[in-house]
Amino acid sequence: MGLRTLHVTTIDLTAHCFLRSTFDLLRRQGHEVALACDFQQFQSELTEHTDRMFQVKIPRQIRPFQDLRGLAQMIRVIRLYKPDLLHSHTSKAGFTARLAARLCDVPLVVHTIHELPQNATRSRLKKTLYWAMEKLAAGWCDHLITVSRVNREQILRERICRPEKLSLIPGGLQLQNYQGGGVIPWTLPADAIVMGMAGRLEAAKGHEDLLRAFARLAPQNPRLHLVVMGTGHLRGQLEQLRDDLGLQERAHFLGWVEDLVSAMAALDLFVLSSHYEGLGVVLLEALALGRPVVSTRVGGTQDIIEDGVTGLFAPAHDPAGLARAVQRLLDDPALAARLAAAGKEKVWRDYSAVDADQKVLELYLRLTGRASRP
Fold this sequence. Notes:
This protein has helices at about 10-20, 20-30, 45, 65-80, 90-105, 125-140, 150-155, 205-215, 235-245, 260-265, 280-290, 300-305, 320-330, 335-350, 355-365, and strands spanning about 5-10, 30-40, 50-55, 85-90, 110-115, 145, 165-170, 195-200, 225-230, 250-255, 270, 295, 310-315. It has 15 helices and 13 strands. The chain folds into two domains: about 5-170 and about 350-365, Glycogen Phosphorylase B (Rossmann fold); about 175-350, Glycogen Phosphorylase B (Rossmann fold, 3-Layer(aba) Sandwich). About 45% of the residues lie in helices and about 15% in strands. The longest helix is centred in the N-terminal third of the chain and has 18 residues, at about 65-80. It is of the alpha/beta class. The protein has a seven-stranded parallel β-sheet with strand order 3-2-1-4-5-6-7. Strands 10-9-8-11-12-13 form a six-stranded parallel β-sheet, with helices on both faces. Helix 4 crosses helix 5, helix 5 (about 90-105) packs parallel to helix 6 and helix 8 (about 205-215) crosses helix 13.
């Protein structure tokens, strides 16, 4: 008899981007998959990958009244569905779901730390609060997964859990989707050199640094254009900064791009300006497509990029440093091609979703005592 698994995320975007292949493997192996989150955009697509879906609204920020309502909704879902295993993702959903699971005596609770919440702030007070919440919630679950070596080292250094309670399972890609060419969904000059970034338009992704870096690059590279793919609450503010920098004709905000793989495949180079990252899956995507990349040296990007071998690093919060790294690739196409080839080889060798999903399933079976004995 298969497992009844309940997966919890804050919003459906997380499940759409990172969990569908895991859901598909579980269902092929005879396990049931239910998803609880705030469905905003991808409910119809996720129907094909799940057996049950539950609407639960968990705010991303601390909102006491809304948090209590989200907790009550989560408890109702657990009591209705009666899962054998609950697996939560993202910090806020993870806290709420693990508390609800503890209150409802769910037999097995797993949480994936994609990124530690204390890395999202520079406030010492908030860092301490987030650390305390993460350590408390770690005690409400049976096992933790993290997605990068850097995260694992920090989790153990900060004593959030014991080593035997933590597994490192990096995310992976469905690599068969990352073949062939692409098309930028925007009209650009035929001779344009296109650098791009994809990600939510929020402060953590460093788009302001990216625009200021591009402002340094644009005068000496007249064919260079920047495309920014993604949605978020900072779009208006970032477009205003673009206009203030005089980049209206050279920096383009594409919004939500339905065929992101095709758009990224059409880039000449990819830039990630994030201030922190759990792993940096979008880097994996760019490298899988054979794009040369420049990335800030943060979090799990250090698992993916070897500076000068599979890509180039720049310091976070440093537009000038980011611009220098991009200019180095623009000035040396042979270097860019060499880095892109090495990066593609690494991703295709080490970051398959097939391998990652199988490791998650094997962990479930081991924790539930269903793993086959040798």
